[in-house]
Specification:
265 residues, single chain, Dihydrodipicolinate Reductase, domain 2, seven-stranded parallel β-sheet, elongated, 2 domains
């Protein structure tokens, strides 16, 4: 049985992860973590996940060992917990978005000590989308204009979404574009003719939308649209749990959902 800890357990994702970990016969929830001062500290994790009593209290710090920790918190908390996991030899799955370049570099460094998996989106469908978009980008080349539209609920803290940024990265990798030079974020004013290499990312925040992503490939006379729509957060949760099972016994290194799903580069 794989022993699992969850960081950010009172959040929308963390609560569902803890609930599904408890239900999974291959897993055992051993720790539920929240930031200092959170109102859930000391409560049974079942009180935030919607399940019954689990016997696992929400704490600020780990007081037991785990095989793997799943993090859906904040960038700052993710780095702190990654450092802890490296000291305690605990494999790490990070689904937290909004990490900056320095924070990514820090986790990359820590992956020399433990197995780390970072993904801006854990769902099987979205990771299939990453692969399809990369293939389509190679096929259409630079003759098609490429735009990314992402829509999320009004409570999302970061924009554009980590998924939209990863889509742009996949497109750049496939077509020899550069994120810093060729990607723009929305448009305003007199923008002139659209540059050939440009990739536009547009963030929409509305209501309770869980997550929609569309990549548009447009040329003169035709258009291709590839879309993924999340109906429930459980699609991300199940992907995160699948990642945790995959990485729990792996040697140190950086892993991705492509490794979990055996998607060939």
């Amino acid at each position: 049985m794989i022993e699992v800890a969850v960081n950010g357990v009172s959040g929308r994702m963390g609560a569902r992860i803890s609930a599904l970990v408890v239900e999974d016969p291959e897993l055992k929830l051993v720790a539920a973590l929240e930031r200092p001062g959170h109102q859930s500290i000391g409560k049974d994790v079942g009180s935030v996940s919607g399940g019954g009593e689990t016997g696992i209290k929400i704490t600020m710090a780990m007081n037991t060992h785990a095989d793997v920790l799943i993090d859906f918190s904040s960038p700052e908390s993710a780095i702190a917990i990654a450092e802890y996991c490296a000291r305690k030899n605990i494999a790490l799955v990070i689904g937290t978005t909004g990490l900056n370049a320095q924070q990514h570099e820090k986790i990359q460094h820590l992956s020399g000590q433990i197995a780390c998996l970072i993904s801006p989106n854990m769902s099987v469908g979205v990771n299939t989308l990453f692969n399809l978009v990369a293939q389509a980008s190679k096929m259409v080349g630079k003759e098609f204009d490429i735009e990314i539209i992402e829509t999320h609920h009004r409570f999302k803290k970061d924009a554009p979404s980590g998924t939209a940024l990863r889509l742009a990265e996949k497109i750049c990798e496939a077509t020899d574009r550069e994120m810093d030079k060729d990607v723009i974020y929305g448009r305003n004013g007199i923008t002139g003719d659209r540059p050939t290499n440009q990739i536009g990312i547009h963030a929409v925040r509305s209501g309770d939308v869980i997550g929609d992503h569309t990549v548009i490939f447009g040329s003169l006379g035709e258009r291709i649209e590839i879309t993924h729509k999340a109906h429930t957060r459980d699609s991300f949760v199940r992907g995160a749990i699948r990642a945790a099972k995959f990485i729990a016994k792996k040697p140190p290194g950086m892993y991705s959902m492509s490794d979990v799903l055996q998607i060939q580069a």
